[in-house]
Amino acid sequence: MPAEEAFVGIGSNVGGSIDIVEAAIAALAGLSRTRLAARSSLYRSEPLGEIEQDDFINAVVRLETELDPLALLLELQAIEHAYYRRRDEEQRWGPRTLDLDIILFGNRVQHDSHLTLPHPEFTRRRFVLEPMLEIDGDRFIPGHGSLSYLVEHAPPLAMEKIATNDD
Fold first, then answer.
1. Number of structural domains, the chain?
2. Most buried of 22, 60, 64, 151, CB within 10 angstroms?
3. Which are the catalytic amino acids?
4. What is the CATH number of the domain that holds 142?
5. 66-115: pLDDT as tens digits
């Protein structure tokens, strides 16, 4: 299978979040049949939802992978598990040690019980869109528009770049 591009969103707001996000990027770079093609700067962003919690540290990476989407998802879940990620459906947008989401996987469109591609909320997540724009330029995403258009039209969110990808 030829390599495909996959964008993965990374977030943490429990524990040493900057170190956790950096370690997650290193873990993603070490996945089999996968190459880290680009990584964004780190961003601090306010949390979504009504739950009182600390700000998130976010980043996005672009991978070139020969894994299929489900295999990549399972690898991401294993990395999350290594950082004691717990999924609580009652606190869907609650605090987490590590959150890894496949945002885009090539031009694939998929919706099943395991995975939805593109990520169903990515157009509303400025903390994903701005880092994607940083590492991939003004990409046009079929059915959604250009990244700059999506950033302009995303809901407002307090966020700031805290470390560049070459620090």
1. 1
2. 60
3. 85, 96, 99, 101
4. 3.30.70.560
5. 999 999 999 999 999 998 656 555 555 668 889 999 999 999 888 888 89
